[in-house]
Amino acid sequence: FSFSWQTTFQDGGEEVEDGAVYNVTLKKVQIQQAANKGARWLGGEGDQLPPEHTVRQYETSKIRAIKAGTLEKLVENLLTAFGDADFSYISIFLATYRAFASPRAVLELLLDRFGNLETSSHGEVANLNSLESEMVLRAEIASVLRAWLDQCSEDFREPPDYMCLLKLLDYLKNNMPNSDMESRVQNLLKQFQNQEVEAVDGFCSTSSSDLVDGEELEISNPEEFSSFQDHVVAEQLTYMDVMLFRRVVPYHCLGSIWSQRDKKENKNLAPTVRATITQFNAVTKCVISTILGTRELKIQQRAKIIEKWIHIAHECRILKNFSSLRAIISALQSNSIYRLKTTWMCVSKDILLMYEELSEIFSDHDNYLTSRELLMKEATSKFANLDSSEKENQKKSQKRLQLQKNKGVMQGTVPYLGTFLTDLIMLDTALQDYVEGGLINFEKRRREFEVIAQIKLLQSSCNSYCLIPDQKFIQWFRRQRHLTEEESYRLSREAEAAADTNILSPKSQKSMVKRISTLFLGTDVFTPPKEPPLKSSPVGGSSGESTDSASVSSCEFNHSETEDVCVTPVSSPEDPLKKSSVGSDKGYDSDKGSISSDKGSGSSKGSICDPGPGLDGGSIPSRDSGSVPGAAPKALPVYNRQSEGSCIIRVSMDGLHASVYKSILITNQDRIPDVTQRALLKHNLEPDAVEDYELVQVISEDKELAFPRDANVFYGMNSHVNFDFILRKKA
User: Fold this and answer.
1) Per-residue pLDDT tens over the stretch 404-457
2) Could you tell me if 543 and 559 are in contact, meaning their C-beta atoms sit under 8 angstroms apart?
3) For residues 281 and 593, is the Cβ–Cβ distance under 8 A?
4) CA distance 201 to 171
5) How far, in Å, CA of 117 to CA of 617, rounded?
6) CA distance 94 to 625
7) pLDDT at residue 27 tops 70
8) Residue 33 is inside which H or E element, if any?
9) Fewest CB within 10 A of the end CB: N or C in the chain?
10) Torsion angle of C-alpha atoms 334, 336, 341, 346, degrees rounded to 10
11) 32 and 3 in contact (C-beta within 8 Å)?
12) Which residues pair with 31 in a beta bridge?
């Protein structure tokens, strides 16, 4: 017989049970059968038969996916999901449950309520005899536990007592003695205990910048830095980034987890994310220190260092390391570097074009669509896809890429983690944690898992890297003394002042200005901001400032913030060099894992914030993992656009830097008191003080829109400017 089939999906509505709501999808499969021998007798060619000589059968099955439920129902669904054909449920639950429950609570429900045969009310096995019940339940419990240990073993790292791991071990000894699972849990317990001892003894460190005994921080020696080949620097930065990114625990990135980092009791929250941020800051600060750290450098020498970093950034692009690539570009776009007009004039045309093309990867156009598409395109590709509009750069790129291919080693992909952090923060802001009846909104977790799955995919791709650490470079990198923002800006002014009176004659300077201006004719102009004062008010929330303040970054998350910072640059039109994307002396905060604001440069209103201020387009780029067939997700509220009666606004406190803001979801039903109260809560202020504050929308630098006491914010706001608001205490 020959077979052919066609599958269609149909929305089956919802099913409501006590403590749970399910989405139902009907899967209809049409099976067409034909006998080959009969087909030949009827004159059919091959398997082709006239419609009247085929046999069609229809099979309809029901896919039930839990939409919302109590914690008990969500845990019980771990055992029944396969029977309901919700095959991705276990992975989704394990990746996201930390947003609404603890490992201990889930484990106790799983083992004590549903794992105890004597008291189990598990519906699927209720009608089977005792032996069959025991076998089925044991298999289901084992399947869930195996997936938990495979995907989220870090959930059981609870030093020094390891209560969950010991509870699990006790359960296995009683119910699955001498099983592979029992041996595995015992080995995991020993592994955690050994790592704890190593950490206490000082043999293990999570910091990428720790020094060995006797080492001191120092300002970079230009000759020593120049001795490292460009590709070696890129490979070593990639090696460090890969080691840290592979250790990232995906649930640490969830918006509801990450947004709690500013609380005093959560100073050690999400350490794996903080570690990647520390490394990002270290790279940006290293770039600035090597360019500005030596006062005696001549203009051409400083320009050569900038050129070297652009080449290193290009090598990072070849290695598909978007994290260090972005860190380098961000540093070059910081106030203290891109204001070096005379130095940039000495950078060669070809390298400036290369810099321009690398910067365009992180263009904020259409919610950073270029970097998002490139990241997903190259996520699992063997090598980078390099294109250049400049022939010479294209030749060099292809030559370097060919060398990589000749080695026969595939490359992984290291993303800029800020993209995913912001997507998850925006999801957390836009979707409710609980729905009617106090049920946990699991649809929200399915949407979050679409982002988590991308992180996991990229982590898997990093296994393709084959990089060997170069201890000479790593030690050099770790012992670099990073300039503060005040120092870097002061040195920048000194370098530019010296350059203005140095070797460039008025004629040669005019020629260089003309050359650079011609190079970028018809595009935006590289425009450093107006000179800021050396001092500015420190920025921070109620929890205060980091003592380990970051200096430069493309996107950061303020210690007191739950959102990313994205602001626009202030520029002066007379500057000749193009600035492809805005930049500032800010940083991915190494201690807090978030953005610290300008402390020294004072003026910088620019920061490249990869994730952008919102989900432009209404949804997050997603993969199919975790989604239910036929269930199309609704468009999410977005920043800077009103749609379907809702939007997201950004509210900052008067007196603080404009980049310190909170994202707030509003609807067409919200009035001033409602929004003001939410803003106060987000900024960790007393919500009962609504009457003491006024909410205004920023229209321009010198214009604001004030609202009457009970105005509807959604309809009253100006939708033709940024949705940026200020919460100000009334006089």
Assistant:
1) 666 656 688 999 999 899 899 989 989 999 999 999 999 999 999 999 999 999
2) yes
3) no
4) 32
5) 50
6) 14
7) yes
8) strand 20-34
9) C
10) -80
11) yes
12) 5, 57
Structural Rg of the chain based on CA atoms: 29
Residue with token string 């592994």: 191
Residues 383 and 411: beta-carbon distance below 8 Å = yes
Angle at 613 between CA 612 and CA 619, to 5 degrees: 80
The answer to whether residues 256 and 99 touch, using CB atoms and an 8 Å cutoff, is yes
Which helix (H) or strand (E) segment holds residue 429: the answer is helix 418-430
pTM to 2 decimal places: 0.70
For β-strands 693-700 and 703-706, DSSP reports them as antiparallel
Q: How far does CA 292 lie from the centroid of its chain?
A: 30
- What single string gives the DSSP state of each residue in 110-179? IIIISS-TTT---GGGTTS-HHHHHHHHHHHHHHHHHHHHHHHGGGG--TTT-HHHHHHHHHHHHHSTT-
Nearest alpha carbon to residue 457 among 400, 523, 381, 384 = 381
Closest residue by Cα to residue 592 from 553, 649, 648: 553
User: What percent of the chain clears pLDDT 90, i.e. is strictly above it?
Assistant: 44
Q: What token pair was written down for 614?
A: 């919102």
pLDDT band at 572 (very low <50, low <70, confident <90, very high): very low
Contact 334, 286 (CB under 8 A): no
**Residue type present at position 715:** Y
Would you state the structure tokens that stand for residue 674, as one six-digit string? Answer: 């409602």
Domains and CATH numbers, the chain: 9-33+56-117+135-194 (1.20.870.10), 230-489 (1.10.840.10), 638-729 (3.10.20.90)
- Rounded to the nearest 5 degrees, what angle is found at the Cα of 450, between the Cα atoms of 446 and 454? 150
Q: Cis bond leading into 573, ω under 30°?
A: no
> Between β-strands 439-441 and 55-69, what pairing exists: parallel, antiparallel or unpaired?
antiparallel
Q: Determine which helix (DSSP H) or strand (DSSP E) holds 694, and give its type and residue range.
A: strand 693-700
- Structure tokens, 467: 């990089």
Strands 661-667, 646-653: pairing is: antiparallel
